[in-house]
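A protein record pairs a chain with a discrete description of its three-dimensional fold. The following entry can be read in just this way.
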Amino acid sequence: MVDLHSQYLHVKHLIDSALQSVIDTSSFINGDEVTVFKTKLQNFTGAKHVIPCANGTDALQIALMALELHPGDEVIIPAFTYVATAEVIALLKLTPVVVDVCSDTYNLNPDLLEAAISAKTKAIMPVHLFGQSADMEPIMEIARKYNLFVIEDNAQSIGAVYTFSDGSKKQTGTMGHIGCTSFFPSKNLGCYGDGGAIFTNDDQLGSKIQMIANHGQNKKYYHKYIGVNSRLDTLQAAILNVKIDKLNEYNIAREQAAGKYDNAFAGIAGLKIPRRRTNSTHVFHQYTLQIADNKREDLMNYLAEKGVPSMIYYPLPVHEQEAFKSVTRISGSVDNAEKLCKSVLSLPMHTELTPDIEDYIIESVKSFF
């Protein structure tokens, strides 16, 4: 599904040099490389404040902690997402409220938001799933109307650009009150372990998030907030400093591979390609098809026999996960999410796909149908 070793070989001299530099200085926590990466990420995204942290899940949890929500408060999320989105909400004794997604883009359906809002609703957490922005303009309008916070889960879509109706453009993760991302190795911008970051354009939130991520302190041994210990270590920052310079190149490679998949699979009965929104670019963290007529498992087995990996993201909607059945509130019908969980299948998508590999994957899928 992902060829991290081949990607490493292309930048080996840069990565090895960056790691050796950290080892030579032995500044493994909060070294200069972390500050350099923070600045690079600010410049790349346009976010005013960037707070690196230990992983994407921590980023979501710290974001919620900074908003000072109370047990029982509700946070609206899409029903079709990775579990971390709901997990951090439940950990803080808040209530995840699941709302259905659009059947073709897999992202939160803004038309269903107002019906999900109650007196306890305090925030919306849209997920920019698989590499494409959720429809943020109506989401932000509803948030303003009801005085709600917006936390963007941007773990899968760093570098995607959303265009508003007035022509202005913003990167995913920089439109809401807080944005969160992950640098898990398989992400478009991935390190060689765990890592994450939090974005905000709000000065007060930026200062507070920075403190919460550092034991709630802005001066050593003086703790203003109850916080956590969540930081990006210097070795991972050194790796990310190399890879962020390649991120646009990486995203273009993914988009080109997705375009080749699109052209090959369009019009095949029983197979639906992902829709690309006209107001968002797509950086294709995943290339996810929908397989009709309950043939998904047959296709997976067929591809496996041919040596082609595939993956189901995700087999269950949030509210059907055992851990979340008793803690979520379901708003209205979530038929799309439930249908997607039974039909989606992701194909290999990474920066090292060669024309020969792409052709083999395509012909393997087409021969099944």
Observations:
- The radius of gyration is 20 Å.
- Residues 247-368 form a domain with the Aspartate Aminotransferase, domain 1 fold (CATH 3.90.1150.10).
- The chain has a mean pLDDT of 98.
- Residues 181 and 255 are 20 Å apart (CA to CA).
